[in-house]
Amino acid sequence: MTDTEREAKPRSGGVQSVDRAIDLLELLADAGGESTLSELAGKTSLPLPTIHRLMRTLLARGYVRQLQSRRYTLGPRLIRLGDSAGRQFGADARPFLERLAGELGESANLAIIDRDMAVYVAQASSSRSMRMFTEVGRRVFTHSTGVGKAILAQLPDPAVEDIVTRAGMPPATSKTIDTVPDLLAELDRIRDRGYAVDDGEQEIGVRCFAVPVLGAPTPTALSISGPDARVTPDFGERAVPVLQEAAGEIADLLRAG
Fold first, then answer.
1. Residues 124-139: what's their mean pLDDT?
2. In sequence order, what E strands does 67-204 have?
3. Rounded distance between C-alpha atoms, residue 132 and residue 112, angstroms
């Protein structure tokens, strides 16, 4: 949805001022967490005095803060809400991940975008002695991970460029994509085939297949990962449809909530 559509789209049964305040918080997040009042005004149809009044209210409640440069940024009060929401989301999704790990025999992961990084919100580990383990809450670069690329593929190219410009594209291995044109080309391939592959790009000897969770309120991805000796291209052909089915179920869960 464009910024103009965000503001113009009618909402039935809601409170207009709450809608507008949430829109401003989402615009701040889309801008990397920091913006001026005039920049926000340029992305909505709201008058500048209305934006100023709403931002002062959010500032007083700690949901935004103002820097010495007079720019506004997301506030610390959101951290507690985000942490609680992430934990609940992970808890709700964990049964799906446990089923995936049991069916496919490898570790299943769920990640969302958090500013310019991907953060894992749930995992179910493989029962094998040699397995992948990702700590819930771990933040990883989007350009070098399966979940990260599946998340970026849900975004328009300008948003992707903004994210990787702010975060950087450090090469984790010799296989890591480390230029914007190469990344955008890879994202086009991911969009066409419907899944992402991390083939030793984050860690040598590890392969990961990831799919987007379409319809989630924030870009989200589901993955299966393990040693590349087991997680082969043939494994991926079997795993991707299973991942996509589970991603659809998780999306339905979120919509029902």
1. 74
2. 72-74, 107-114, 117-124, 139-140, 196-199
3. 19
**Which residues lie across from 224 on neighbouring strands?**
108, 209
The answer to whether 27 and 36 are in contact (CB under 8 A) is no
Q: Tell me the per-residue pLDDT of 8-27, one tens digit each, with 9 for 90 and over.
A: 444 555 688 888 898 898 88
Residues 6+ apart with CB under 8 A from 238: 104
pLDDT for res 8:
42
Domains in the chain, please, with CATH? Answer: 3-75 (1.10.10.10), 80-256 (3.30.450.40)
Q: What's the rounded Cα separation, in Å, for the pair 252 and 38?
A: 38
For residue range 144-160, list pLDDT tens digits in order.
Answer: 999 999 999 999 999 99
CB 183 within 8 A of CB 164: yes
Q: What is the largest CA-CA distance in the chain?
A: 61
Query: Any idea what DSSP says for residue 246?
Result: H
The tokens of 7 are what? Answer: 């503001």
Residue found by looking up tokens 């991805």 in the block: 221
Residue 151 main-chain phi, psi, to 5 deg: -70, -50
217's CB contacts (< 8 A; 6+ apart) are 254
Q: List the one residue out of 235, 166, 225 whose CA is nearest residue 201.
A: 225
Q: What is the pLDDT of residue 7?
A: 45
Q: Which residues are bridge partners to 212 per DSSP?
A: 221
